[in-house]
Amino acid sequence: MPTALGVVFLVFTALALLSIATRRSDVLLAAQLTADHSKCFLMSDREASADAHDVERMLADRYGWNIHVPPSSASAGVQLIGARQCLYADGRIPHVMYRVRGQDLSLYVLNGVSRHASELVTFGHRSQIWTRNSKTYVLVSSARTDGLPDATRYMMSEAY
Q1: Which domain holds residue 116?
Q2: Pairing mode, if any, of strands 103-111 and 91-100?
Q3: Tens-digit pLDDT profile for residues 59-81
Q4: Cα dihedral: 6, 11, 17, 21 (round 10)
Q5: What is the CATH number of the domain that holds 55?
Q6: Distances (CA, A) of 80 to 14, 45, 77, 160
Q7: Do the domain assignments include residue 57?
Q8: Which residues fall within 8 angstroms of residue 151, CB to CB, at 6 or more apart?
């Protein structure tokens, strides 16, 4: 019994420390979301296509999230695939998935969180972080830049 309590204590302590570290470190946040991005695209139907209003309604009905989902854009080369609920150090997070000229692109929304704008590379993926209207957005994509500058500008202007 004392061993089990010790293990439980260690697990909760580790989770608390991870949560605190994630709030302070953009690199740790980007690494967590990059790992989730890779996992979700391995499990998803890459050929799917979705309507932004349907995805918004699903996120609201299923999870209680009221977020604007940027729709597909032929001019920016962005195709909306769908969305899901994912986990990171501070809990559940909306994950909206896109394809950009054959590359995977993820948009994560952290409600009520403010971070300084930054761009960094972790695990071979680029993370673009910005805050607008009391929400922090993290855009995760391949570090390759084929068509991504247009898609990034589009996503940053459409996510609010």
Answers
A1: 26-158
A2: antiparallel
A3: 999 999 999 999 999 999 999 99
A4: 160
A5: 3.30.200.100
A6: 36, 12, 10, 16
A7: yes
A8: 76, 77, 78, 98, 100, 101, 105, 141
The tokens for 138 are: 């993290």
79, 107 contact by CB (below 8 A): no
What residue type is assigned to position 40 of the chain?
C
Taking alpha carbons only, the member of 53, 57, 45, 92 closest to residue 70 is: 53
Rounded CA separation 126/120 (Å): 6
In a domain, 15, yes or no: no
According to DSSP, the residues that pair with 99 across neighbouring strands are 79, 104
Per-residue pLDDT reduced to its tens digit, 96-136 = 999 998 899 999 999 888 889 999 998 899 999 999 988 99
